[in-house]
Amino acid sequence: MTTPLIAPCLLALDLGAHLGWAMWFNGTVTSGTTDLSKSHNKRFEGPGMKFVRFARFVADLPRPTLVSFEEVRRHLGTDAAHAYGGYLSHLTAFCDTQDPPIPYEGIPVATIKKRATGRGNAPKEDMIAACRGRLNYEPVDDNEADARWLLLLMCEASKLKWPGPAVPEPPTKAKPRRRKAATKT
């Protein structure tokens, strides 16, 4: 018995309270942001509700064949680090409990920024500008821009065609040459 072919569906996530997401399916890209901290009844809910909202969001999407997320190794605040860990644990649990399990991978932030701007430490404004200029797309915010660039990396790695014209590599800036110190004779 042969296994039926499944059309690839790629999901890219910028994990956080303001979740950036992008999805490639059948040559079409959709993306956006979702505010997981929003609630009309915040007074009566616990701090874990943002994770419940995240799990519901992921479960309501079309089933992806591959998931990538922005891999953050350093957070400036303890709360942000804890929240990131919570989102990541819910995401990996979701992927691992599917039948068959959905493969997932983390892509370092610097790798995403370097593909977008040519610099691994580019600020948020540059990521948005690169999305506007090189992807010809107006993102809602930096979270959506990051998710779109992550999705482009996934498409390139999976040899899937990005909709529209090919996205060129970012311009590289020549590193300044160090001058040799003058020697006294």
Summary tags:
185 residues, Nucleotidyltransferase, domain 5, globular
Care to describe what's here?
- By secondary structure, this protein is of the alpha/beta class.
- It has a single domain, classed as Nucleotidyltransferase, domain 5, CATH 3.30.420.
- The protein is about 35% helix and about 20% strand.
- The protein is built from 5 helices and 5 strands, in the order βββαβαβααα.
- It has helices at about 50-60, 80-95, 110-115, 125-135, 140-160; strands at about 10-15, 20-25, 30-35, 65-70, 105-110.
- It has a 5-stranded mixed sheet with strand order 3-2-1-4-5.
- Helix 1 runs parallel beside helix 2, helix 3 (about 110-115) crosses helix 5 (about 140-160) and helix 4 (about 125-135) crosses helix 5.
- The N and C termini lie far apart (about 85 Å).
- The mean pLDDT is about 85.
Largest sheet, strands/sense/barrel: 5 strands, mixed
Under CATH at level 1, the class stands as: Alpha Beta
The sequence of SSEs as H and E is: EEEHEHEHHH
Helix content: 25-40%
Mean pLDDT: 87
Sheet-strand content, in percent, reads: 15-25%
Low-confidence stretches: none
CATH superfamily: Ribonuclease H-like superfamily/Ribonuclease H
Find the CATH topology.
Nucleotidyltransferase, domain 5
**What CATH architecture label applies?**
2-Layer Sandwich
End-to-end separation in angstroms reads: 83 Å
The secondary structure category is alpha/beta
Q: Give Rg in angstroms.
A: 19 Å
Q: What is the overall silhouette?
A: globular
Side by side, the strands of the main sheet go 3-2-1-4-5
Count structural domains: 1
Number of strands: 5
Number of helical regions: 5
